[in-house]
Structures are given as C-alpha cells and as structure tokens.
Amino acid sequence: MLYRRHSSRHWWVRFTTPDGREVRKSTGTEDKKAAEEYEAKLKQDYWRQERMGERPRHSWKEAVVRWIDEQTDKATLDDDLSHLRFADPHLAGLMLDEIDRNRLEALAQSRKAAGVRNSTVNRMMEIVRAILRRAEREWDWLDRAPVVRMLAEPKRRIRWITPEEANRLIAELPEHLADMVRFSLATGLREANVTGLEWSQVDLTRRVAWIHPDQAKARRAIGVPLNNDAVLVLRRWIGRHRERVFVYPRRNAQGRLEWLPIKKAGAAAWRKALKRANIEDFRWHDLRHTWASWQVQAGTPLHALQELGGWTCAEMVQRYAHLAPEHLAEYAARIETKLEPVSARFPAHPEKTKPLKSG
User: Fold this and answer.
1) What is d(CA 87, CA 80) in angstroms, rounded to the nearest whole number?
2) Which of 130, 154, 178 is the last residue of a domain?
3) Which residues contact 253 (CB under 8 A, 6 or more apart)?
4) Domain for residue 357, yes or no?
5) What pLDDT is recorded for position 9?
6) DSSP alpha helices (H): ranges in the chain?
7) How many of the other CB atoms lie within 10 Å of CB of 43?
8) CA 10 to CA 30: how far, in whole Å?
9) How far does Cα 250 stand from its chain's mean position?
10) What is the phi-psi region of residue 140: left when phi exceeds 0, alpha when psi lies from -120 to 50, beta otherwise?
11) Cα of 34 vs its chain's centroid, Å
12) Phi, psi angle pair for 210, to nearest 5°
C-alpha cells in the first residue's frame, strides 16, 4: 500500500515480502503514479530475491533520496544538498555497485578543478562516503562500500582578535551590528543564534538565555549564562521589536522608522568595517573563536568551555588548549634543577667582552 508520512513530502510504500518481512520505504517522489510504479518494481525485486536468490540492485539516486529522508532533522542538510548537487552529474544513472574508487577519484578531481579548496572537496566526499556506508551497513544495499580517499588539508590556525582590535571593529560598525558583536563576544553564540534570538528565549532577571534544540547545530538545547556585558547589550534593545532581540532600522514608504529582523550579520557593512578597522582574514564565525580563546586565556577549564559553547565532543575545544599552557607549569618545573645554573659560568651583566684574537 502507498501512504504519506507527516515528516515527508514523498509517498511511502509498505508491504510484506514473500518470506514474511515487512518493508517500509520512501518512493522518493510526490507523484502517485510514479510511486505506484516504484512499488510494483520493488515488489518484483523482492520476489526475485526470494524465489531466485537474486539481490536487488539500487541506484545512486535511490540512495540519495532515502538518505535525505532520513536526514530531515540535520542542521546542515542544506549544505549537504549543495554538495550533492555537484556530485549528481557524476554519479546519477549509476547503480551503487558501479561506483568504485576510480569514479570517486574522478569526482574529487573534477571538484578540485573547479577551483575550490581541498576542504570543500572533502566535505562533499564525506557525504558521498556516508551514503555509501549506510547503503552497506544499514540498508543492506551493498556488499562493500568503496574506500573514499580524502585530500590533504592544511591545519589552519584559530583566527581570533585582541580586545583592542575588537574595540576598533565595534567603533566602525552601525549600532545593531556593534551590539551583536558585543553580545557574540560575551556569549560565544553562533551567528544564526544571535540573529534569530527572540525575547522569549531571554530571562534578564535570572541572567540567562537558551537556544532550543531545533536552533542548535548539534540539535541539543544550550543554556547561555549572561555576563554583565551581555545584559547591558540586551537592555539597550528592549522595546524595539516585539519578538526579535536584534533588529535594524529602516524608513518605510511613509517615512516612518521601523525595526526589521536581521537575516545575515556578516554582509557588506561587516566587510567594510573590517577594512576600515584594518583587520584582515576575519569572518563573523571567528567571533566565536575569539570568545573561546579569551575564555581559555582567562583560565576557563576546557570541560567548562565545552559546555558553555554547546560542543558535543571534547575534540572541538582542544583547538584552544595551546592558548593556556599554565596548567602544565607544575610538570615543566619538575626538571628545572637538573642542570648547573647559568650564573655559575656566565655573569648576568658582563661589563665588557674581550675581543676575539685573530689568527
């Protein structure tokens, strides 16, 4: 039978195979006639598999459709889809068992030839790898997924700025962006969480804010303690908009001032302010890196930083560990008396150094 699930636009099929197994799958289409054709073919494939011992073959397109249906709650799904759109011309029309290492190498090289960085190529290949592995390990569509080789990526330093640079930048920004920068540096929140912050998510009496699971990258709720800097910023924006915290002013057709929600913070005004402040190679997301770097340098333990920033694994916060090596001082001191003191052989402030004799 065909039916529709609340979480999917596509028709789904449900039936019992000759050996008594129940099958529930997405047809990958919103067209009922096409869904009926898919159901008939699927039933035939299962019949051949049961009666003749044949394993049904599945296409790359089928795998992508099923993977997308299973990823509807993924925060970065839109980014994944953009990568898949580039891979589609190279893999569309292929059966999964026809996708081998050579085809994957050709896909990666084609993407690289388009002038993108190795990291961008790797993000695409990671999604391709995830689909192929799921086809093997969970869907039983492949005997063995091919190896997907990743390109070398340079390890980039964490980009952060000093308080003096931050003040220079803030001075060059319009009011709404300046306060959003102050708030970001006080909380470490991501751009989307700042631009989309609503008053219903703020409690100034308790000095806390919260990010709901569907707003968080890791799909996990985040509690945000508000320090004095954050509270002062929020108080300045009370009453400007009924729902949103941060808004920008614009005159309507009648010349009346109205406050509108902000969709993107790191746009033209941001880039121009960076140039005037003489700050290079700095993105809006680097405000989060700056917040984390300042926290570590101020002595915040990494486990506390992980909870404050809403990271799901400790590996993410280890990127900042090198900024606060003070906790290793005790161990460095354990061998400091092993050698003869420097002052035993050399005076601290020699008044005169004898010239070397030539010859």
Assistant:
1) 11
2) 154
3) none
4) no
5) 80
6) 32-52, 60-69, 77-91, 101-113, 118-137, 163-172, 175-187, 191-195, 228-236, 268-276, 286-297, 302-309, 314-317, 329-332
7) 16
8) 5
9) 32
10) left
11) 36
12) -150, 150
Query: Torsion over CA of 162, 167, 169 and 173, rounded to 10 degrees?
Result: 150
Residue 123 CB: number of other CB atoms within 10 A? 18
Give the pLDDT confidence score for residue 350 in this predicted structure. Answer: 58
What's the domain range around 104? 74-154
Kindly list the distances between the CA atom of residue 40 and the CA atoms of 15, 36, 75, 185, in Å, as whole numbers in the listed order: 11, 6, 34, 57
Q: Residue 230's pLDDT is what? A: 96
> What residues act catalytically?
190, 217, 285, 288, 311, 320
Is the whole-model pTM more than 0.85? Answer: no
Q: How far apart are CA 82 and CA 61, in angstroms?
A: 15
Token pair of 308 as six digits: 């404050």
CA distance 257 to 243: 17
- What does the pLDDT read at residue 63? 94
What is the rounded CA–CA span in Å between residue 126 and residue 132? Answer: 10
- Examine the domain organization and report whether 208 and 259 are in the same domain: yes
Distance CA 77, CA 166 (A): 33
Residues in the chain, pLDDT under 70 = 49-55, 156, 327, 337-339, 341-359
Same domain membership, residue 316 and residue 196: yes
Tokens in use for 146?
Answer: 């091919």
Q: Distance between CA 185 and CA 243 in Å, rounded?
A: 22
- Asked which of 154, 189, 220 is the last residue of a domain, the reply is 154
3-state secondary structure (DSSP) of residue 14:
strand
Domain CATH code at residue 220: 1.10.443.10
Cα 54 to the center of its chain, rounded Å: 41
With beta carbons less than 8 A apart as the criterion, state whether 224 and 245 touch. no
126 and 49 inside one domain: no
d(CA 178, CA 237): 12
Note the residue count of the chain.
Answer: 359
Rounded CA separation 240/61 (Å): 48
Whether 96 and 243 share a structural domain? no
